[in-house]
Structure formats: C-alpha cells, structure tokens
Design brief:
This protein is α+β, with helices and mostly antiparallel strands. The strands form 4 sheets. It has a 7-stranded antiparallel sheet with strand order 1-8-5-10-4-3-2. It has 12 helices and 15 strands. The protein folds into 3 domains: 8-226, Cupin (Jelly Rolls, Sandwich); 230-278, no CATH class; 306-405, Alpha-Beta Complex (Outer Surface Protein A, domain 3).
Length: 410
C-alpha cells in the first residue's frame, strides 16, 4: 500500500488507527512485525549513515547528545570540550566499549522526523518528539523502567531484544510520577520479543520494559507521544478560573504549619473558593483554543522548496494566476477578528490582515485546493496579487502541481 503522507495510517500499517485506539492506546503494548511491509519501512526517517553524518556535521552539545548505559560516576566531560561540544571520536570510542549514544530531539534537526512529528500533531492534536538510541552489540542502555509518556519504537537498523512487563504505576503523570532508580515496584514479565528492522513497538506509559542487543548493533527511533491528559486539561482550566477568585490570591495563615487551630480557618477558605469555582461553567471552546494556541506557538515553520518557489515568482517564471495552491499540509491554524483586523495564527506567529479578508481565508483554510479564481468575488486583481505574494513568501501555501504552474521561458 502507498501512502501520500506519513500519518498514523502509515506509521501503524497494517493496523488501522481505529483498531489501535480501541485496543492498544493506553491499554497494552503492540508489536507490528515487518512481514507486511519489509525491513526498509522506516529507512526514510533515519539510517546509520544519516546518524553518522549528523553526529559529525552538527554542533549539538551535551546533554542533547550523550552516552547512556554507563556507570553512575562516569564523567561525560571525557567526550566533550569545555563548552559542552561533542568530540565525536571520543564519543565513538566509548560506544565501542559498550555505551549507547542517545540523541534527544533529533526531529529539531532532521526534516523527515520533523515532518512526521508535525503530521501526527496535526492529525491527533497531541505533541510528539523523537529520541534516538544507537547501541553496540551485547549492550544495554537502561535498566528496567517505565516512561511517563507513551513511546512508539521504530527499529531502523539491526535488532534489539525487549522485555515487556506489567504496569505497577497506572498511566503515570508526567512530571509528577516519574520513574526513579531504587523504586520497589516488582514488575511481572509479560513478553519477550526481538524487534527487527522495519518493525514497531508501542509501549503505553507506566508499562515497564528494558532492551538490549545481542549479536549485532541497533538503532531505533523512540517516537514519544506527549499527550495532553484530562488532568493537564483540568488543571489548566482551574488555574485560569482561580485567577479571577480573589480569595485564591491570599496567603495561607501565618503559622499554618505550627498551629492546629488554623486548619479550620483554612478548610473554610478552601470551601469558599471551591464554591465559587463550582458556580462557573466550563467554556470548552475557549479552553480548547488555549491548547491550540500553544500548539501553534510551538510549531516551527517548515518551508521546504520555498526558495525555488519564491525565485520562480520573482523571476516571473511562475504563472500564479493559473496555479492551484493549497495550505501547507501540517500547518495548524487559528483565526479571529479583533476590531477591524483579521488575525491568522500559524507557523508560530500571527499574520494580520484587514477584516474584509475573512471570506478569502474561509476558502484558503478549508478548501483542499484553491486558485486566484476562487477569491475574485472578494478581492480585486491587485488585492489578490498582494495576498498570494504574502502567502507564498510566508510559507503558508504550496503549489499542488508545480509543472503545470511554470511558464515556458525562451
């Protein structure tokens, strides 16, 4: 099966998104073998060669690149300079001795990983990140542990042996119930498996696991699902409401740690605050928009092929009037009118227009494709020209068929 974009259908194939949500998400592990898709399935995302090139070309510092699976007293300064820059030859030396190379946030540097994370965020409304683990033969990066976010392991090189346990901590909250060494959890082993190239392993947060190599090295992408929980959502709502409750701004009584008789006063004040909160309805639309604004603010702009598009426009090689455009695939947008301004939030910034532009953006944001012809009812020729030039230069749109849009020159 061919996929036009790297979304959940592509990621989970042949498991459907509906099957994954109903039977696996936040419930149990899922192992998808490469029988139905081949060893090269995830090779477009990362390879050993790409990782090697990245480590040698990029000036990424410790701890974004670090060694794991080393002793607690290991000195990470042994493979960095005084400014934290990675000395790759020393990094590889310790790798040859059994350490695992860990690259955090590789999606911030490699386009294919960034596109995957942005595509999944657009589709699922949750955040994603990628961490990379490169482990030599007969080695282990981490002890048995759990994560406080769901992980989707994509094996891109070699094989790795995994042990999957139960979940002594059910759906742990990020930042509150993190795993710590020395926790007495006594997990029960549920499954052992070998993850091969082109295979996927989904592990819900809280499910304990470990992984090690045997006769060959391994590179895998850990795609982290940093989901927004009902807990996160409710805390955000309550914090927003508490801002407007005067009593919540006051100090706790002086001496409240020392005097038992102050507890009664505190209980009464807390109940008063809760009563005020209970009288206010939840505005679900406003609270969802707040989450959406955060997604937009933190979405970095992808402008692949933008340089050529701008050159063709400036050099009059692009027939904009006959071109068919669409909104960039993974852009998350939000729009509002304030006064006489139409404000479009996209690509981490605000774009401001006169309010009469709204009908045009109703088409741009919702149509699968559009051209200048679709906007002639709302703007004159000069207005359309200015708008399209802005959309192109800001990287908000792309041409659906470049060949048909280029003028014949000469």
């Amino acid at each position: 099966m061919k996929f036009s974009e790297k979304n959940t259908d592509w990621l989970l194939h042949p498991i459907t998104k509906e099957d994954f949500i109903d039977n696996y998400l936040e419930k149990k592990y899922l192992h998808i073998s490469n029988d139905s898709r081949g060893r090269e399935y995830y090779s477009s995302l990362l390879s050993r060669g790409k990782l090697d090139l990245f480590l040698n070309e990029q000036s990424v510092k410790y701890p974004n690149i670090k060694l794991v699976g080393v002793d607690d007293d290991f000195k990470h300064s042994d493979y960095t300079d005084n400014e934290g820059n990675i000395q790759v030859s020393k990094l590889y030396k310790y790798y040859s001795e059994g350490a695992t190379i860990n690259v955090n946030g590789l999606h911030q540097y490699l386009l294919d990983l960034k596109e995957l994370c942005q595509s999944l965020t657009k589709e699922t409304s949750h955040k994603y990140q990628t961490n990379i683990y490169c482990t030599p033969k007969n080695s282990q990066g981490f002890i048995t542990h759990y994560d406080s976010h769901d992980v989707i392991v994509l094996q891109v090189h070699g094989t790795k042996e995994w042990e999957i346990y139960d979940d002594p901590v059910k759906l742990p909250l990020k930042g509150i119930e993190e795993f710590e060494k020395g926790m007495q959890l006594n997990p029960t082993l549920k499954k052992t498996l070998t993850l091969k190239e082109g295979e996927l392993l989904y592990i819900p947060r809280g499910v304990m696991h470990n992984a090690r190599t045997k006769d060959e090295s391994s590179i895998h992408i850990t795609l982290g699902l940093i989901g927004t929980t009902y807990y996160n959502f409710m805390v955000s709502i309550i914090k927003d409401k508490l801002i407007n409750v005067e009593g919540s701004r006051k100090y706790l009584p002086f001496g409240f740690l020392n005097h038992e008789d102050l507890k009664k006063e505190m209980e009464e004040k807390l109940n008063e605050i809760l009563e005020v909160l209970a009288t206010e309805d939840i505005n679900i639309n406003r609270d969802i928009e707040r989450v959406k604004a955060d997604r937009i603010k933190n979405q970095s702009n992808l402008v692949l092929n933008q340089l050529e598009l701008i050159d063709n426009m400036l050099e009059e090689k692009l027939d904009i009037e006959k071109s068919v455009f669409r909104l960039k695939q993974n852009i998350i947008t939000s729009a509002k009118i304030i006064g006489e301004e139409y404000i479009l939030s996209a690509n981490g910034q605000e774009h401001k227009f006169p309010d009469y532009i709204k009908p045009c953006f109703d088409i741009i944001l919702n149509a699968k494709a559009f051209s200048q012809e679709h906007l002639k009812e709302y703007l004159d020729e000069e207005g359309i020209s200015v708008l399209f030039e802005y959309l192109i230069c800001e990287g908000l749109v792309e041409i659906t068929d470049t060949k048909k849009s280029l003028l014949k020159v000469g």
